[in-house]
Each structure stands twice: as structure tokens, then as C-alpha cells.
């Protein structure tokens, strides 16, 4: 079985030999995530289309995301790919209308009538937190090289022993941030969170830089210098460290603090510097809160997920640096390859029409059944 991002498939029909069997959606405040499963009838039982050995399933999981503010783009994609005409249509040559799909997130309520009106699909709502944790557990257990660390521009995959996975802290960074202590399959509690998350970064960034999208804001941040905006320890101590309490001169003493003493207007600052400072401020804050919660509950593993991260090097590096700083090097931040699709994956798993539960069982019996991702 192959897992892939379907970003390139916006205007493509499924391959003639492929059959779409199942899909699920996670409609969040900022982004809508879609997961769908296709089977290919042209390959043998132990080889997927991509040539990745999988003795259990023939097919692949496909992932797609949209801005929720452009929900009609999502509906059009579903229609163009005929995702609403799934099921067993390939068996008798007839297309059959799916009557309902699993959905999670606040938008499953907000846009239920729209899906029914435009596609004739009812949204069968699943609990958002249940889906999030179920999706994380599935990916961590069965996907090879799903988890990794990232610090100082170095990416290192982490081997996960599914028998020693729990407990862990799951930090989901979406529009806001939720933190969950996961003790076992279906056993979790929300232990903390903060309203300062991806929506904050996007919202303030839009106000301050006039950026047109989240990705545009991230791109700007990659070219910026936060030292033009942030007040550092060295700015306070004449370029010196505050060594007595272990603060180097480059540590941020106050995010956006340098603006106080500058006699400048907003337009005098570079948008990329503002974006960089904003991203560092929010990432540092989330990393610190995450570690303090892990410390409070005695958790050794911290997994960061959510589309705020976007596999963005500076974001991951900042989250990792925050955890490293506050833990004095004793803890490490870990990230997920399919970071933004946990909720959609969990909703997908809640309807066992696709055989993934069988894959979980087989993987427990034989670790070689783990999925491979490009």
C-alpha cells in the first residue's frame, strides 16, 4: 500500500484501473483535509502500483487539502475526481452514488447542508478529538518513517516500537492548539491548549504584511531576519550574554520588543522580518507550553502535528529549539510526515470498509507489513 499527497491530481481522473472505495473529510476552521483510498486492480496481491510490497492491501491512500474559505474548490475536486461516485462501481460497470461519508471538524456541521445540496452526500459526523488521536496512532504504528526529529537543519527518522508507543503528548497545531495525553488505543485526555496557533500567525500576518495566503506568509518568513524586530538579551546587555542564568546574547528577551524604541511606522519594516518574528514568537510559545505539559505528566515523547507546521524547516527548528532549551536537552520534539491529516485519517478509519484494521492486525504480527511512503 502506498501513501501519497494528491496535490498533483486536482484536474485528473482516477486511473482507469483504479477504483475509489472510500473517502473522509476533516473540515477545520482554516483548512479542509480529504483522505481517499483507491484500489488498483492490475497488480498482484503482494505488490502495489508503486512497486511497494504490501501483503495485505492493494491500493493507496491519497491526501488533499483546501482552504476552508474556498470550500467550493473542495467540492469541485470531489466532483471532478468522481469521489462521490465510489463504492463497488467497478464490479458491474455502473457508478453508484455514495450516500454518506465520515466527516469531522467544526465544518462537518457548518457545511453539512452544502455537501448535501452540491453532491448529494450526507456527512456522518465523528468526534474531532477521537479522530485526531486515532489517526495519529494509526500512522505512528504502521507507516515506516512517519516520525522524525528536526533540529539545526538535520532531519532524523525515529523508529517507533508500537508496543512502546504510549503514553505520549500529541500537540496538534491548527487554527488553535490542542494538547492531548494519549495513554493507549482510544484512551486520551485533553490536558492543555492555547488560542495562539496557526490562525494567530495567519491573522496577524495578514494584518501586518498584507500577505495573500498562509504559504505566502511562510515564504516571506524564510527570507526574514527577526533580529530587526525582536529585542534580544544582547540588546539589553550591550551585546553580552547573561551567563549567570544561562542566557546567551542571541536569546529573544521580548518578541517584537525592538519596535518600542524604534521611531518607525509599519511600512518602514520589511514584511519578511515581521513574518519571521511572528513565526518565531508563536512557535517558541507552543514549544514551551508543550514541554511544560510533558513535564507535568511525566511524558517522554512529544509529537507535533497540524498544518501550521507544513514541514517548514524554520518552524520545526524553532519548536525543537524551544523544547531543547526548556528541557535542558533532555527532551526532543518529534514531527509527523502526514502532520495535517490526523483528523481526516481518524475519520477514515472509523468506517472499516477499506481493510486498514486488517493491516493493523497484520502489522502487529509482522513488522514487515509497515507502509512505505515516498
UniProtKB/TrEMBL annotation:
Major subcellular location class: cytoplasm
GO biological process: coenzyme A biosynthetic process
GO molecular function annotations of the record: ATP binding; pantothenate kinase activity
Highest taxon above the source species: Eukaryota
Pfam families noted in UniProt: Fumble
Enzyme class: transferase
Keywords: ATP-binding, Coenzyme A biosynthesis, Cytoplasm, Kinase, Nucleotide-binding, Transferase
The protein's name: pantothenate kinase
Chemical reaction(s) catalysed: (R)-pantothenate + ATP = (R)-4'-phosphopantothenate + ADP + H(+)
Family statement drawn from the similarity comment of this UniProt entry: Belongs to the type II pantothenate kinase family.
Subcellular location: Cytoplasm
EC number(s) reported in the record: 2.7.1.33
